[in-house]
Amino acid sequence: MSQVVVSFIDVEKRFASIRALCGTSFSVLEGEIFGLIGPNGCGKTTTVRLMLGLYKPTSGKVSVYERDPQSHLHEIGQKLGIMLELPGVNESLTALEYLEYYGAIFDMRRSDVEKRSRELLELVGLTERAHSLLKTFSKGMRQRVSLARCLLNSPRLIVMDEPFDGLDVDSRRTILDVLAKESHERGVTVFLTSHNLAEVDEISDRVAIMKKGEVLAIGNTAELKAASPNRKTVRIVLARDLTEEEIAALIPDCTYQQSGRTLQFNIEASAAGKNAILSRLIAVGLPIASVHDESATLEDLYFEVTKRTGE
């Protein structure tokens, strides 16, 4: 059985009259990539700061490696790699100097730091910019060098707060690939927060959906989607152009979205549901060119969960 690395038990966090977390409970297991998703202001960053011992819970219990992060931060910190949305960097340093500076903080031997720094710069695709000043780096490049710094001490737990926000495609792909490698090859635990659901959907083993300080659903992404009543999208491409009015007259009681010749139906993932739609369209004479099935996305699941809970 996998070790519990992070545990929140009935955690509430108040700032004066504001409840940032409302009895939140979840656990993160060793070696998994765990995504906490939700809109801005839902409590994701508060959760991270509680995990890092920067906040004290108003009530409930937070533990990391079975330790209170406030009273055992130094001990926990030896196993941690942290990457924030807006990492602070000394712009007067080069990328290599930046990593060497943090290597000294971790009390690593100078020869080990230099070797490790060059390996990491290669890993994040910045070898050619090793001697460039950080003030010349784009946001995506700063995030990648911050990821290298995050991995410098070979952490067992990586904590990331909104790592994909505002990044270009190449930087997002680099971060996703590196995290997958760290988890799958080294057994590193990754905890990340994001409101960019596509990236979380691609990489996470489990997710928790949060809104207004509450965890509304939690579990394996595939299992959560499979439990969803709206878990399949059927896209039907018509053989010729029809206006919205013409289609609506033929299937007035069907719910769908139209984009040109494509009709999108959100249905239950069963052969009966799909066949019922096709039979109806054929019966009324709609000309069908092709049919495409798509599984529900994490975004579909998110909106469904929040809708079910009245949010």
Describe what this molecule looks like in 3D:
The model has no long low-confidence stretch (mean pLDDT 87). α5 (139-151) packs parallel to α6. The protein starts with a strand and ends with a helix. Helices cover 36% and strands 28% of the residues. It is globular. It has two domains: 4-225, 3-Layer(aba) Sandwich (Rossmann fold); 232-295, Alpha-Beta Plaits (2-Layer Sandwich), CATH 3.30.70. A six-stranded mixed beta sheet has the order 5-6-7-3-8-9, with helices on both faces. Strands 11-12-10-13 form a four-stranded antiparallel beta sheet, with helices on one face. It has a three-stranded antiparallel beta sheet with strand order 2-1-4, with helices on one face. It has helices spanning 44-51, 73-77, 95-105, 110-123, 139-151, 169-186, 197-203, 221-226, 244-250, 271-283, 298-308; strands at 4-15, 18-29, 33-37, 59-64, 80-83, 157-161, 189-194, 206-211, 214-220, 232-238, 257-259, 262-267, 288-295. A hairpin with a 2-residue loop joins β8 (206-211) and β9. The chain has 311 residues and is an alpha/beta fold.
